[in-house]
Amino acid sequence: MRTRSLRLFLLGLCLGAPVALAAGLGDYEPIFPTNPCQDGWAACIVDGSAVTAEPTKDAAGRPLPSDLRVGWFDLEATAALSPFVELSAYDGELEAPEPPPEAPAPQERSGGDEAPAAVASNNNGGGGDGGGQATQGGSRRDPGGEPAAPAGAGATTTPSGRPMFTPTPVGQGSDLAATPTTTVQPAGGTAVAQLDNTAAVQPVAPVANDSCDDLVALEPAALMGRMLPGQVKCLEGRLNSAELQTEKDKISRVLMQNAEAAGNKSEWERLIKRHLEDIDRSDPNLCFKYALHLSRGGVGRAWGVIKWADYALENKQQWTGSTYKARVNALYQLRAEAAVKLWEDANAKMLAASGDDRSKLEADEVKLRGMAKDYSREWLDYARAAGEDIKKPMALCVSTAGSKKFCEE
Q1: At which of 64, 88, 107 does a domain end?
Q2: Is residue 377 domain-resident?
Q3: Which of 256, 280, 304 is the last residue of a domain?
Q4: Distance in angstroms (rounded) separating the CA atoms of residues 281 and 275
Q5: Is pLDDT of 335 > 90?
Q6: What is the CA radius of gyration of the chain?
Q7: pLDDT digits (tens, 9 = 90+) for 170-205
Q8: Is residue 138 situated within a structural domain?
Q9: Which residues pair with 195 in a beta bridge?
Q10: Tens-place pLDDT, residues 81-140
Q11: Is residue 199 part of a domain?
Q12: Do 298 and 283 form a contact (C-beta atoms < 8 A)?
């Protein structure tokens, strides 16, 4: 048993592969290189001996991979060592490339410049061989066989004799309807209108429609933020003169949508503030949206966040299902975090003050801390009841109350 194991070990060592009874074909790839020669070929002749993918042998007869440059055991150079071997020459015969086909020689028209005249004479029953060729060419392009314009008439003609029409290039105001300005009278034929396309027709500029009578027609432009300035001005005038509150609500919403879609944040903020304060504050979606917008500002907007979050909570019954849970939880969070901002700002001012000012600021700090503690606890209670994550409201509650026991009761 020991002898068999030793033989397997020596065989694996000689072949340069791991000893495994269930080796795949990929395990033997290093033993049979695809390109062992220095010049990149799969086989070559070195000193009269062939070098292929088959393993070679050193001076003692031990097998080696054919691309090995130095022997493993004797460190002697192998046939694949030298890096100065040039690329082997290719002795095979190359097939001569086929010559390209010769282009047919152009056929000269008989009659030269008088080919159009030959067409005319052939149509009247005359013409020789040259006239016959011209007539055959003209019959394919001009079945009617109309006569050509005479030389010196100033008209560019086709080989069949018709006046050549040159359309106005696209982008230069062409309306695809040219106006005939001159008439060419060929000898013995009917008059042909010569088209003049040199004068480009300028495109008509769109007329700005500043009308705002139809709100439904303005909604697509408002959704893309592309209402015209005249339309916006017109809607502002309608809003100021409207008597019904429902009409004011509709006009204001179109203006808000247009400003938001156009990315004009300052104008949108002005419009939504006007809508909520002067027109209608019963929509919890708008109140929530405005409170969320204000929460991205500093401590100076914290009171606005609390105000509009409270208005949204007053009408939260308009939401249902998962929307109700998510938005009510978010409103409690906005209100609690705004209160914490106010408390932290009051605390920083109190610590920086002295004397009588400090006493007044201490009272403000205590009041704002109590508000932050209450709002944080309300957020925590709702998150627990609704099955929301309580990690953040718990941390906020503990930081404002200063005691974990208050938040766990």
Answers
A1: 64
A2: yes
A3: 280
A4: 7
A5: yes
A6: 47
A7: 444 444 444 444 454 545 555 544 444 444 444 433
A8: no
A9: 180
A10: 765 555 555 566 666 666 777 766 666 554 444 444 433 344 444 444 444 444 444 444
A11: no
A12: no
